[in-house]
Write a structure and sequence with these properties.
Length: about 220
């Protein structure tokens, strides 16, 4: 499931974010690669800073392996925060994609934004399970484990609105904003999703999941745009 989520996010980063950013800048007569590179690296740096500040704990690790600022928070809270960090760039990506429609609306752009939202929605299922299942294993009731999983996704609509407002208020920043969201998502994939999906002996399954996730997101983006 985590491999699938990683595949979706990698495909979305290119097909729905980086490529449109490059095309927009080229159409505007600018340097096509400039906003893509600057925005991409800025998005990665943003998530790197959050990763170092916000206390969180990855699945399967002991409390002494918690990252971010030292805290006395419970293990369950730290597990939820780990997935919450994943969801920040996903919300940004969807918000920026739909905010871009205010600049130059087209059926293709709408299709791409819808495809991105559907793809992110699909991979939220395994991410929610990645919170709920470990909590259930630690003794939480089914209902509490489920709602903690839902809680980890609350940041997505919040950052979705922020991303949309950003490009509405400062439209020239749109290519940078798209690339920023892509960089933030790739940071999450490389830093957390892929390593977590490759733990244990069944690495082939997570690799197949990543391939399937990439293919599904690529299909959605091309078919709907």
């Amino acid at each position: 499931m985590l491999g699938f989520a990683a595949g979706v996010m990698i495909a979305a980063s290119f097909w729905s974010l980086l490529l449109p950013a490059i095309n927009m800048e080229e159409a505007a007569g600018g340097i096509p690669w400039l906003p893509a590179v600057i925005g991409f690296l800025s998005g990665g740096l943003f998530l790197f800073i959050i990763d170092k500040i916000l206390p969180h704990l990855h699945m399967g690790l002991e409390m002494d392996k918690a990252e971010g600022r030292k805290t006395s928070w419970q293990r369950s809270i730290l597990l939820v925060l780990a997935i919450t960090i994943h969801n920040i760039p996903e919300g940004l990506a969807v918000g920026v994609a739909f905010g871009a429609l205010s600049g130059e609306f087209s059926p293709e752009a709408l299709g791409a934004a819808v495809a991105l939202a559907v793809g992110i929605g699909l991979q939220n299922f395994p991410e929610g399970a990645a919170v709920s299942i470990p909590l259930r294993r630690e003794g939480f009731s089914r209902k509490k484990a489920f709602w903690y999983g839902q809680l980890s996704g609350v940041v997505e609509p919040v950052f979705g609105v922020l991303g949309a407002l950003l490009v509405l208020l400062v439209k020239p920043l749109l290519p940078y904003a798209l690339a920023f969201a892509a960089g933030a998502m790739i940071f999450v994939v490389v830093e957390e999703l892929i390593p977590e999906s490759q733990t244990g002996n069944e690495t082939d399954i997570s690799t197949v999941g990543a391939m399937l996730g990439f293919a599904v997101m690529m299909f959605l983006d091309v078919a709907l745009s």
